[in-house]
Amino acid sequence: MSSIEKAPQVALARSEGGAQVDVVVVFADTVNTTTMDLLGKFEKPAGGFVLIVGNKWNADYSEAADLRVRAVLWRSDFSHAKLINAICLVNSGGAYFPASLQGDLLDHVQRVQKEILAPRGLTSSGLTSREIDVLRLAAEGYGIAEISRELSYSERTIKNIFYGLMKQLNLKNRTHVVSYAIRAGVI
């Protein structure tokens, strides 16, 4: 890699010879399906993409998230300091979005929850509310019999829920399932 510019914590460079890069900065006048197709052709950077956008966002938020878009800067509000901040945030696992996109993104998440997940009995974690209730009680130290009484399900149902989660998540036992749920932020 040949260095182009250096700033505190950031070295901008051209990727040569297929070297892995941490963050890719892309300029686009309008973000749309063509932009998403372009991003899909890149090898996904370890941290993600930073987009500098001219005037419009006309792309699907879920697709952008899948492609690892982690920051957006409007060209009209662009500054060197904001770019460096966005790159550092993305490289450390964070994100940087203008307030206007944050509201749209939250609206999108709400629509997905209401129109797609809830009618199927799912939550954003991919688990049902019943599974989450069982996991929450198990994390509080309840045994199978206590969980079944608390939720008015048979002990067999509670055991089946745990078995289904172990199989679905490829985990070893009930403790492993509860530990996974806590680490994943499900409970």
TrEMBL record:
Pfam families: GerE (PF00196). Transmembrane segments: none annotated. GO terms for molecular function: DNA binding. PROSITE patterns: HTH_LUXR_2. Keywords: DNA-binding, Transcription, Transcription regulation. Signal peptide: none annotated. Residues 120-185 form the HTH luxR-type domain. It comes from the Bacteria. PANTHER family: DNA-BINDING TRANSCRIPTIONAL ACTIVATOR DEVR_DOSR (PTHR44688:SF16). This is DNA-binding NarL/FixJ family response regulator. It comes from Streptomyces demainii.
